[in-house]
Design goal:
The protein is of the alpha+beta class and 158 residues long. The protein has 2 domains: 31 residues; 122 residues, OB fold (Dihydrolipoamide Acetyltransferase, E2P), CATH 2.40.50. The chain is 25% helix and 30% strand. The strands form 2 sheets. Strands 2-3-4-8-5 form a 5-stranded mixed barrel. Strands 6-7 form a two-stranded antiparallel ribbon. A hairpin with a 2-residue loop joins strand 6 and strand 7. The longest helix is centred in the first third of the chain and has 26 residues. It is globular.
Length: 158
């Protein structure tokens, strides 16, 4: 192969790899913009625990995240009987925080409602949930959560 043909061959290979990566990203992101996921602020359970669920007062740092795109790690507790797809679930910090008597404190539960027709396949290991965090208490069948989230994407925790 001549130098020119080799350069063209490399360009074709690099372009193909890029297009395949872009296609896989589109497939795994479900057609959603990566900016929604990429710009999310990581929130941990320590920060969520800064909300006093009795008075409803949040730390200034947590208050700034109200209505913002965030990602939170945790475990899914489906609130629906459909074992294949759920549109609403609780996110809790540990697998032992599954719903039992008594349930976890309200500032250790996030009620996630997937946006629009989005549904999630139940994942029984740790996950990342991406979406808009709301510091709004929500009542559900297991009590009250201090937070709710408009979920847009779920992925296994890595």
């Amino acid at each position: 192969m001549s130098k020119i043909n080799l350069s063209k061959f490399k360009i074709i290979i690099y372009a193909s790899v890029f297009l395949i990566a872009a296609g896989l990203s589109y497939f795994f992101m479900g057609g959603r913009s990566p900016a929604v996921v990429g710009d999310a602020v990581e929130v941990d359970w320590k920060m969520l625990g800064e909300l006093d669920y009795v008075s409803g007062k949040a730390s200034p740092e947590l208050e700034k995240l109200n209505g913002q795109d965030v990602k939170i790690p945790g475990f899914m507790v489906p609130l629906e009987d459909d074992s294949k797809n759920v549109s609403e679930f609780l996110l809790v910090p540990t697998p032992q925080a599954c719903i039992h008597v008594p349930p976890p404190p309200p500032n250790q539960m996030v009620l996630v409602e997937m946006v629009g027709s989005e549904k999630a396949e139940p994942i029984f290991g740790p996950i990342w949930i991406y979406g808009k965090l709301l510091l709004t208490p929500k009542t559900h069948q297991y009590g009250t959560s201090s937070f709710s989230m408009e979920g847009v994407h779920i992925e296994p925790y890595k």
